[in-house]
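Quick question about two entries, pasted in order.
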Amino acid sequence: MLDIKFVRENPEIVKENIKKKFQEKKLPLVDEVIKLDEERRATIAKADELRANRNKISKEIGVLMSQGKREEGMALKDRVTAQAKELEELSAKEAELEKRVTEIMMTIPNIIEDSVPVGKDDSENVEVQKYGEPVVPDFDIPYHTDIMETFDGIDMDAAGRVAGNGFYYLMGDIARLHSAVISYARDFMIDRGFTYVVPPFMIRSNVVTGVMSFEEMDAMMYKIEGEDLYLIGTSEHSMIGKFIDTITPEEQLPLTLTSYSPCFRKEKGAHGIEERGVYRIHQFEKQEMVVVCKPDESKYWFDQLWKNTVDLFRTLDIPVRTLECCSGDLADLKVKSVDVEAWSPRQKKYFEVGSCSNLTDAQARRLKIRVKGENGNYLAHTLNNTVVAPPRMLIAFLENNLNADGSVNIPEALRMYMGGAEKIYPKK
């Protein structure tokens, strides 16, 4: 969320940013929120003036009563009573204006960085760099669930009977491989100096609206009926929420955290949820990284975060590339985002396995995440990135490590989590 003062002083910059994100329908909101804020500030000034006047009159009443001038004192009391009613009305008006201003401000997108390419959607994202040589083997790569089924490693039919489409059972070596990847990702990030965290898997509504836009919330979050709780779509949500309404001493920054959680997503409006694969599903597990830092350090940490994901995938013999997300593909709170995509030998193309985002002070403003500096308090910057998110990551792993005989190579980095195995072999 932007600072209302910035919007007041830079309306044209805010409007130009909205145009870059192809959200022209929001353009009238800029003038509307400025007008509402002006009315809100005038209401506050008038209320403050009334309070000061009421205090002054109250003192005069005391003097008059002490002097025995009861009639004059009672007349002033009537004035105080009338002003109290007016003040009550002003307070109600102020609250209503504050609510409306906040509602609008939460829909106006953050100011994207100048380096972000302008484009309407993800089809206009820009490739930055490739890491590793993408290889297409001289044998056919089966569909990923077909590979898993040769290991007796997946049962989506049973999951469909139990929970419906978008769920799965992982079993045997595939389930172990899933857990091995998560464990390796955890230790990989700990070795890079990040603190390991297991957060709450449910969060309250004020945290939800603090970490994402209303559009994202509606498309993603599962609500717990009868309670003010939502299932998290990623551990970033509860990790950023950990710092709600806090003031962290500047010398304790940056806070670098890596968190594990299951993730739950409605995938509302998403295509492919009915497919037999596990690319887009309602439930999965994920290792995340989150940074809370000083504003002048967020660009540095942005680059460190996406590089961590690239490095991890390369240790597992998976070629990847980075994509700069264009303006139209950025969620409203983000100022810059880079996707990491893994190579799919079967499809002969890359697909998304992680997304790194810099939100500057947008989440911090909503959640009041502040830093105590030498010259006073200021808002922190927050960033997040995916380390790994199996089972989607398993698609890339299985395809890139599959052999012609159906066995799957286990890279050296992962072997200690797989009982020392150098390969796993199909059951059928």
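Here is the second entry:
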Amino acid sequence: MKLAFVFPGQGSQSLGMLEAFAELPEVRATFDEASSVLGEDLFALVGQGPEAALHMTVNTQPVMLAADVALYRAWVVRNGPTPDIAAGHSLGEYAALVAAGAIAFPDAVALVRTRAKAMQEAVPEGQGGIAAILGLEVDQVAEACAEAAAGDVVSPANLNAPGQIVIAGHRAAVERAIESCKARGAKRAILLPMSVPSHCALMRPAADVLEASLASLSLTPPMFPVVNNADVASAVDGAAIADALVRQLFMPVRWIETVATLRAASVTHIVECGPGKVLHGMVRRMAPDATCLTLSSGTALIEALDAVRQSEGE
């Protein structure tokens, strides 16, 4: 048995999502720790809203980091085995690094708040755009973006799964790219209700802010490999980890290759460690030979623990 953990990022949050983990004391304790760092009650925000505030980037990022880390801690407390390898989708990479001991949780909470603010400030409200493109391959989407750019920025941002790509950039360019993708036979090409165009060249100013913040932190070698988004590689020292996190902001999330890397590492079980099942569906499509599990509720946590322990004993 070889175990991989994958950590979801922004987009998996929902109002009331912690109700599924009411019986796990580690969840409240982790949120209390994150709240003390920021001087805000993140637990109340998730439970009571307002929903619009939860979906603001500056709140979503620390909330999702706390949720991912809380569920990993719940796994550890229940003697779940340590992953052999891990990865995180965009923001989820920070949770993976916390789990691997490469960055202290309080430092990560403060860092992702800084990251979120810098991302929001990098592009004025209304000027950025994001769109989901279904039914085209990466090279086709890249060609459509190049055709539509016309001096603006638009490029593939999240390479989530074959035929499932997200593009980002200037809103007008994204809208032009949508039409170019439709002309190439996209099954769907729709603008998403998000204003921050992550993982494209417009995020370079935010990357500079993040780099300055990372310079003041102590990052250490991870206890297990964490496949990063920028290079689809596992950094082995603090400087390399920080560099990959900086470049992640303006480079695409190469999730297709990440899952291929996990498969090449001969993993037999892949556990999504976070609320929801966003990564589970993508991973199951790309790794049909692996047992794919979630920690999407307290019940799911127990089921995942049982499945992994049973395989350990075989």
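Reply: Residues 210 and 223 are 24 Å apart (CA to CA). The longest strand covers residues 154-161. Hope that helps.
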